[in-house]
Design brief:
Length: 87
């Protein structure tokens, strides 16, 4: 049994950029975690997606954040704000 959980979406006519963030996120999910996998149960597929989203948001280096993970970026940002407030 193959479960297709991810479907593509279409932007409004003439506006190709309204869904770019979502398209990139789901594209990364499919390529990095789900490509070629088959799940016997919907629960297992959901668990895989949740695990990947948690990893993506906490541990995956992001090019927009100078190639550090979001948790480290936020920690560094807060430390810089505290340092700036103490100056």
């Amino acid at each position: 049994m193959v479960i297709d959980l991810i479907t593509t979406s279409m932007s409004r006519r003439g506006n190709g950029w309204d869904n770019v963030c979502g398209q990139m996120l789901f594209g990364s999910l499919k390529v990095e975690r789900l490509h070629g996998q088959r799940f016997a149960m919907r629960r297992r597929a959901k668990d895989e997606v949740i695990d990947w989203v948690l990893w993506y948001n906490r541990d995956r280096p992001h090019s927009m954040l100078a190639c550090v993970n979001p948790m480290q970026f936020e920690k560094d940002w807060h430390a810089a704000r505290v340092k700036q407030a103490n100056v």
